[in-house]
Specification:
The protein has 228 residues and is mostly beta strands. The protein has one domain (2-227): Porin (Beta Barrel). 12% of the residues lie in helices and 55% in strands. Strand 2 (61-78) and strand 3 form a beta hairpin. The longest helix has 17 residues, at 2-18. The chain starts with a helix and ends with a strand.
Amino acid sequence: MKRIITSTLLLAFCLYTLAQDNYTVFGVKLSIGSSKYSGMDKYENAKIIPGSSLKTIDTYSSDYYPAWDLGLILQVMRNNLMIQADYSFACTNTKLNNAYINKTDRLKRIRNSTQNLVINLGTKIPISEDFRLIAGLGPYIGFDYTRWMTGSDSYKIEGGSTSLPIDGILDTEDADYHNFDFGGSVLIGVEHKNIQLSFNYMHGLTNIVKDEFPLYNRSYKLGLIYFF
């Protein structure tokens, strides 16, 4: 994992250095969309809430749930090469359907709060004087910052609580989940002057749960960026 993070940061630094003689802009971004963990079916059939001490009384299902992120953007252009780096605070969720741990108490969703660094490499295609199409792809890394701040491990697999969380939401920092995530990002969108509207798909490649079956992050988000 350290090698992955080091390589990603080194790539970002090298690309930024190469683009020093071309324009650089900074911006802020707000994105909303939906997310889900891939690989939930085995836990659903086994009546287990992944990464936790919670069990359900019957099989359940999972689905996409609203997700969001808020962050800072660095965009660098060199000739036709676009480098867009995104550092954001993100919240992703997996909705749980009929996940009853007893006859009356139901777990609603699993929530994960992370800091993400995304580096998309791509290009811009002018379609008019003020409009440009953008497309890019690249890696992302995620870090579960809440575990170090408020994590309690109260729902860890061995010896954790079996009672429902007060709000019906299981936060990953309170269960057996990994602190780091790594995957790929795909970005497409349009720019008008200093505003960018983009669609971003993030595809997790590393297992994020310390349990029997692996889980991977999947998220789709529509982002609005304002460049200064």
